[in-house]
């Protein structure tokens, strides 16, 4: 099974260095022993033979399969063999005490269990047992070395275990960071998916609404016209039937216009509101020849379909009025995300609108001839829980400001 907390590159290098320490200690001890002057004859051959046995034992563990090297019994046998060869070498030449010290490093093979303390204690006993002159040992010397063994056991063994625990904690921390980063990425992907689904749901809702509108108004109106025309064809006096048919036709035409105006704009089918407004504003400026500045303030969020359609249609109609009636040279379009509300401002430096003193609206004759009209804009904005304000002074331009709640698409 894969390690849930894999070692870092630095940790793997450190563990590898710890495994090489016995080789280093054995090599240093052998070189010092062989280069020591005034050695008895034949001693060098014995040193080489014993060192060779120790080296073979060290290498033997590396030849074992990886799963065997993780077994505690195998490591215990390997550790005992290292200390045994170290003890023989140290008794042969005290300089091999250096090699015996490597037992402290090999104690990590048992960490973080209590056998780490046992390994350190045994290493200390072998270390001092091979260097003491037992013919001159006193009680004080024995107690002194026992105290050293105890201190070494708890300090070195505790250090091994503490290092292992710290290492595990760091690996858990790294894994937690990796998991958090993965979760954040998945959350971002999920948020994007939900936004797309909400956008698609808004499109579907709009299509279903239009289907109901056509069925409940246009289809029934056309059916009524057909019925009246068929009745007129059978009757002698057709005037009444024609009048009714004309009335139904006018009503159906009005419903058709209203339904077309309520359709979700094509720009919003392929983009969010800021991009849709930007594209529309660019085309409007090119077509009208009026300098138009478009800007977005605040952090944009995906809005519900009804809110986006309302703001887009208000901007579209307001700019249409500017092009047709204002005789302006400059205009501005600003979309502002302000927390719980979204603001849309359209302003121009044109002739202004007569009949509007400060904040108000166009009523009566002044509102006619402007297509969907300023009053209809106000009704559309009110339909989504917002407000529309119009400020205009003749000769000083007009400002149209719509404020609607920032209902996000994901809340649908």
Automatic annotation (TrEMBL):
<keyword id="KW-0418">Kinase</keyword>
<dbReference type="GO" id="GO:0051539">
    <property type="term" value="F:4 iron, 4 sulfur cluster binding"/>
</dbReference>
<keyword id="KW-0808">Transferase</keyword>
<feature type="transmembrane region" description="Helical">
    <location>
        <begin position="141"/>
        <end position="164"/>
    </location>
</feature>
<dbReference type="GO" id="GO:0016020">
    <property type="term" value="C:membrane"/>
</dbReference>
<dbReference type="GO" id="GO:0000155">
    <property type="term" value="F:phosphorelay sensor kinase activity"/>
</dbReference>
<feature type="region of interest" description="Disordered">
    <location>
        <begin position="390"/>
        <end position="412"/>
    </location>
</feature>
<comment type="function">
    <text>Member of the two-component regulatory system NreB/NreC involved in the control of dissimilatory nitrate/nitrite reduction in response to oxygen. NreB functions as a direct oxygen sensor histidine kinase which is autophosphorylated, in the absence of oxygen, probably at the conserved histidine residue, and transfers its phosphate group probably to a conserved aspartate residue of NreC. NreB/NreC activates the expression of the nitrate (narGHJI) and nitrite (nir) reductase operons, as well as the putative nitrate transporter gene narT.</text>
</comment>
<dbReference type="InterPro" id="IPR011712">
    <property type="entry name" value="Sig_transdc_His_kin_sub3_dim/P"/>
</dbReference>
<dbReference type="InterPro" id="IPR017205">
    <property type="entry name" value="Sig_transdc_His_kinase_ChrS"/>
</dbReference>
<dbReference type="GO" id="GO:0005737">
    <property type="term" value="C:cytoplasm"/>
</dbReference>
<feature type="transmembrane region" description="Helical">
    <location>
        <begin position="117"/>
        <end position="135"/>
    </location>
</feature>
<protein>
    <recommendedName>
        <fullName>Oxygen sensor histidine kinase NreB</fullName>
        <ecNumber>2.7.13.3</ecNumber>
    </recommendedName>
</protein>
<keyword id="KW-0411">Iron-sulfur</keyword>
<dbReference type="InterPro" id="IPR003594">
    <property type="entry name" value="HATPase_dom"/>
</dbReference>
<keyword id="KW-0175">Coiled coil</keyword>
<dbReference type="InterPro" id="IPR036890">
    <property type="entry name" value="HATPase_C_sf"/>
</dbReference>
<dbReference type="InterPro" id="IPR005467">
    <property type="entry name" value="His_kinase_dom"/>
</dbReference>
<dbReference type="GO" id="GO:0046983">
    <property type="term" value="F:protein dimerization activity"/>
</dbReference>
<feature type="transmembrane region" description="Helical">
    <location>
        <begin position="42"/>
        <end position="60"/>
    </location>
</feature>
<keyword id="KW-0408">Iron</keyword>
<dbReference type="Pfam" id="PF02518">
    <property type="entry name" value="HATPase_c"/>
</dbReference>
<keyword id="KW-0472">Membrane</keyword>
<keyword id="KW-0479">Metal-binding</keyword>
<feature type="transmembrane region" description="Helical">
    <location>
        <begin position="20"/>
        <end position="36"/>
    </location>
</feature>
<feature type="coiled-coil region">
    <location>
        <begin position="166"/>
        <end position="193"/>
    </location>
</feature>
<dbReference type="InterPro" id="IPR004358">
    <property type="entry name" value="Sig_transdc_His_kin-like_C"/>
</dbReference>
<dbReference type="Pfam" id="PF07730">
    <property type="entry name" value="HisKA_3"/>
</dbReference>
<keyword id="KW-1133">Transmembrane helix</keyword>
<feature type="domain" description="Histidine kinase">
    <location>
        <begin position="213"/>
        <end position="408"/>
    </location>
</feature>
<feature type="transmembrane region" description="Helical">
    <location>
        <begin position="72"/>
        <end position="90"/>
    </location>
</feature>
<keyword id="KW-0963">Cytoplasm</keyword>
<keyword id="KW-0812">Transmembrane</keyword>
<keyword id="KW-0902">Two-component regulatory system</keyword>
<dbReference type="InterPro" id="IPR050482">
    <property type="entry name" value="Sensor_HK_TwoCompSys"/>
</dbReference>
<keyword id="KW-0004">4Fe-4S</keyword>
<dbReference type="GO" id="GO:0046872">
    <property type="term" value="F:metal ion binding"/>
</dbReference>
């Amino acid at each position: 099974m894969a390690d849930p907390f894999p070692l870092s590159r630095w940790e793997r290098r450190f563990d590898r260095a710890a495994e090489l320490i016995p080789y280093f200690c054995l090599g240093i001890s052998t070189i010092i022993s062989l280069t020591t002057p005034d050695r008895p004859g034949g001693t060098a051959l014995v040193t080489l033979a014993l060192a060779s046995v120790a080296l073979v034992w060290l290498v033997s563990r590396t030849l074992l399969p990886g799963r065997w090297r993780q077994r505690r019994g195998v490591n215990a046998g390997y550790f005992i063999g290292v200390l045994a060869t170290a003890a023989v070498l140290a008794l042969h030449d005290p300089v091999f005490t250096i090699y015996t010290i490597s037992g402290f490093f090999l104690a990590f093979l048992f960490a973080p269990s209590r056998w780490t303390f046992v390994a350190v204690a045994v290493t200390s006993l072998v270390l001092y047992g091979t260097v003491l002159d037992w013919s001159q040992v006193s009680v004080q010397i024995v107690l002194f070395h026992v105290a050293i063994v105890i201190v070494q056991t708890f300090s070195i063994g505790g250090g091994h275990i503490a290092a292992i625990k710290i290492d595990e904690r760091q690996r858990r921390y790294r894994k937690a960071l990796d998991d958090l980063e993965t979760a954040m990425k998945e959350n971002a992907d999920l948020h994007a998916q939900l936004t797309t689904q909400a956008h698609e749901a808004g499109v579907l809702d709009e299509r279903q609404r239009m289907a109901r509108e056509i069925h409940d108004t246009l289809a029934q109106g056309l059916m009524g016209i057909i019925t009246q025309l068929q009745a007129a064809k059978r009757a002698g006096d057709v005037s009444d039937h024609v009048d009714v048919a004309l009335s139904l036709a006018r009503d159906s035409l009005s419903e058709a216009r209203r339904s077309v105006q309520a359709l979700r704009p094509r720009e919003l089918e392929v983009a969010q509101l800021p991009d849709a407004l930007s594209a529309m504003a660019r085309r409007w400026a090119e077509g009208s020849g009026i300098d138009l500045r478009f800007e977005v303030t605040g952090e944009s969020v995906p809005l519900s379909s009804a809110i986006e359609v309302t703001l887009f249609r208000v901007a579209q109609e307001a700019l249409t009025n500017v092009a047709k009636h204002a005789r302006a040279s400059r205009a501005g379009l600003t979309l502002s995300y302000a927390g719980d509300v979204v603001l849309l401002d359209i302003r121009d430096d044109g002739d202004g609108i007569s009949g509007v003193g400060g904040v108000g609206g166009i009523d009566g004759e002044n509102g006619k001839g402007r297509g969907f009209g300023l009053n209809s804009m106000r009704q559309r904005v009110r339909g989504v829980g917002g407000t529309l304000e119009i400020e205009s002074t003749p000769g000083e331009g007009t400002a149209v400001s719509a404020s609607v709640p920032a209902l996000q698409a994901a809340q649908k």
